[in-house]
Amino acid sequence: STPAAIASALAGGARRGLLIKGGAALETLGHVTAVAFDKTGTLTEGRPRVVDVVAIDGGEDEALAKAAAVERGSSHPLGAAILDAAQARGLAVPNAFGGSAAPGKGVTARLMSGFVTVGSPRQAAEKGLLSASAAERVATLESEGKTVVAVSEGERLIGLVAMQDTLRPDAAAALARLKALGLRAIMLTGDNARAAAAIAGELGVEHRAELLPDAKLAAIAELGRDGPVAMVGDGVNDAPALAAASVGVAMGGGTDVALETADAALLSNRVSGVADLVTLSRATLSNIH
Ligand code: ADP
Ligand code: MG
Q1: Where are the coiled-coil regions (predicted)?
Q2: Whose CA is closest to atom 18 on ligand 1?
């Protein structure tokens, strides 16, 4: 292979906002057979907004304020949405102590009033906290494409918060381009099955939902049996998945962790940058071989 052709491709990519860490990453991109995408922050804007607060035991504002207290230390986009909503309502957010996050599940902290957990309804159901009527509310909201979190205090479910995110404007077209390049595209998400199905349906993409972090890694390993896999993420708790793929691609607005772990980065937030990377790599390989 000619180092000059590779250097020129890397430089040409960089001018278009496609950062590739080196010749090996460039070459792998040309051989990938599947591209896996994280949902939140990658195929969507990653700025979910609170659209419904459902009071279950106590008031709406109480549930939202307590949820915000627990999320104050969280870097998760759902946490930011809850904090914004509490602020928009002018709520006094109580102090919280000793917060801890369980990736893909939720966060817990101690408030003066007791231990409060904000997390997936599935976790709440596993702890026996979700009544039949609460489960029905969750199902309705989720089938509208919303992500719902359960707010519980001790052994009581006190409320539900539903959030909605926006698709990136070029996501559907970018996925279609990858398919036209002969690649399998798949969305991997920790989000609930109903919302994931609604979003995947709009995008016309294959998907797997309710994946805990380890299950995302297993899904990437499984795709890897058919050939090299690219994983595209924004680095908010998907750094392990970026590292596990044959080639990890970080979206531009992503975290420093993502940029460190990834083999390539898209400086613009265009999903179609992934197809640009593959096309650039294939063109370079065909000039070399
Ligand atoms: P994604 O794959 O869309 O990035 P995550 O794996 O980050 O999703 O999270 C999966 C689910 O875990 C969320 O939909 C939510 O139910 C729950 N969860 C994770 N982190 C938090 C948090 N900070 N606050 C509330 N819920 C959370
Ligand atoms: Mg994520």
Answers
A1: none
A2: 106
Q: Ligand 1 centre and the CA of 42: distance in Å?
A: 14
Tens of pLDDT, residues 178-220 = 999 999 999 999 999 999 999 999 999 999 999 998 999 999 9
Task: Report residue 143's pLDDT band, with 50, 70 and 90 as the boundaries.
Answer: very high
State which ligand 1 atom lies nearest to the alpha carbon of 71. 23
Question: What ipTM was estimated for this complex?
Answer: 0.95
Structure tokens belonging to residue 171: 């996501």
pLDDT grade for 235, boundaries at 50, 70 and 90: confident
Architecture of domain 49-164: 3-Layer(aba) Sandwich (3.40)
Question: CATH code for 3-45+167-288?
Answer: 3.40.50.1000
Question: Which residues are the active-site residues?
Answer: 38
